[in-house]
Amino acid sequence: EGNLVIVQTEPQVSWLREFLFPALFVILGAVLGAVLTYFTTEISNDRKAKRTKDSFLRAIGMELDALRAQLDASLSEVMASTARAQGGGTGPQFAAALRTSVFTSQVGKLRDVDDPLAIEVIHFYSDLGTLQQIFESVNEQSAEANRSASDNSTQAVAVRSRMLSTLKVLQEQISGF
Q: Using alpha carbons only, how large is the chain's radius of gyration in Å?
């Protein structure tokens, strides 16, 4: 009968089980965490951009209501000034400061303007700038006409005619807004 000798050895520690698997799980968890963070941040940013745009449009709506009242009053004043100037009165001087502070201060905060309403608002305010230029032109021409009011030369008549023409253009532009 053979002698059977049993030798007890220490169990081998598998480096796969003790190091590689935990390392893989840590890496997998980090990648999964990064992906989830990216997507939740994007969703959060998209929601924030939408809230910002909605707030912007609400504030612009209130500003446009106030601007409408201002333009109505300005139109009445321009019409009265035109009538006075046509009757031989002095040319008007307007201190026109249009209400655009909400638009001016908030449009830069929009993350994206890929919305038909936002684009329409931007175009409107861009066109509104021409109105300010026409007010300035009327003021310049009125000042020139007022300086030459006592002069009945053809140049003075031409200056007065240009002023009246610009006043009519201003009326039309205000009516268009």
A: 37
